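User: Sequence in, structure out. Go.
Assistant: Echoing your sequence, followed by the structure tokens.
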Amino acid sequence: MQKALTERKDDMTAFFRRNLRFLIGGFFIGILSYFMMLSLNLVNDIDGIWHLSNFVAGDWEISLGRGLQRYADRMRFGIVSDPFNSMLTLLLFETANVMILERFSLTKGGTPWLVLTILTANPVLCNTLTYSYMSVNFGLAYFFGVLAFYLLTKRDTPKKTLLRGIACGAILGVSMAFYQAYLSITVLLAFLWMIKRLEEEKTIRPILEYFALFACTVLFAGGFYLLIVNGLLFRAGVSLASYRGADQLGLTQMVLHLPASLGSCYTEFFSCFLEKKAFARLEGIDLILAALAVYGLTAGMLRFLRLYREKKEKAFLFLILVGLLPVASCAVLLLAVGNPLSVLMSMGPLLCLTLLGILLLPDGSRGFWVRGAGLFFLVLFAWYQLSATQNDQLALKEGKAATVTLTENIVSRLYSEGFMEEEPVVAFMGRPGDNRRFAKSTAYQMANEYARFGCWSTDARNNRVSWYGVTSNFLGVNLNLCSVEDYEALQSQKQVADMPEFPLEGSIRKIDGIVVIKVSE
């Protein structure tokens, strides 16, 4: 045991020595990319704004199958401190990204810096950081998901390989118990690893053996994850919630819905690029994605032909693996039956485009122009992703400023017109982003939905807690907001419907003992 621990310690020390420049460089890219967010404490306007000082995951997170978040939160004493939380998250992501670089032998020239830039400066990670109260938990899920792949690809004796498979299954189960979405990352990396090994192995047997090992590891991970989930559910005395199909977890449901889930994986994968434009809505992104598609088809054909000349079975296995990449990239949808792929869950498609684009780069003089074109368009893609993150942060900043200004004017009117003398129950009807005085710049219009601060869900509960987050966290005002039931009742009243929008005269009225502010229709 002592010898094994010493070996693991030596491995870790050697890893950090080999990759120190990438760890520091990747972290610097993260700080530079998100400086606006870190310095201004920018969060999204739904979950992100609800908890800005202290938070420890409770029964709700346990009911979603994310029970280990509670213990990570307790280790940080529930303190929600930005930029500290975001910097911890970046460290976890960058350490995982460096493990990816090393496993795929991307450690020379400018290629590793290109990969680090795309995996760091993108709207998916930007969205992750807007959940400052739980972003560290997302970082832990990503780190453990990549670690499971990293360790499983280490070649060893059959006995040690089996033990490593069990250990990696446990690590992957822990990752899922923090956040299930990064299962896609582990599965995707395994498929890309097999594509890489097609060039290195003389036969397909070692690749099939690795696939069998990986499949067993994932099955063990699923069992270990369910063991953690059910244990924490039993301890807390709660059951799985229906939110995003969490209560559908289980092998039976997966098998029953497998055809629909596979179709959803392909639909959502291509939607990330065809409809959501890889979450970069800036002018010209269509041309970049089209160029990358042409490059990918060309480079893929060249790779297929080279493998075909070497061994036909390797070429056909290459086609199968490439064809399954959309499923691997969206593997979480096999668990979250019937759910779309949100921005927060979409690191898989971005990672797939990046690593596959790098792996398909041809060698030698014959592929010079294809290689040059591929690198050129990947650099452009990296620049567009970085620009999209800056645009989203601008939208967050401007939306937050407009929301706070509007809310300050409302609270000022409440005091000046005497509504606050008896500590009344208050109801904000509508959301600030729909008010005609709410300024929306070009950056705001082009931003992803999570970055459009002030346009939160109109659902009664979400509306209430988001307004509470603005008034308490940004204004430092303690208002007695009406209950969800009262809010829903007010929504159907003609008196409220007939009220003008703030700041017009009559936009603040007392109805059934509640001070109603008509912010928007």
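User: And one key feature?
Assistant: The chain has two domains: 2-360, 393-518.
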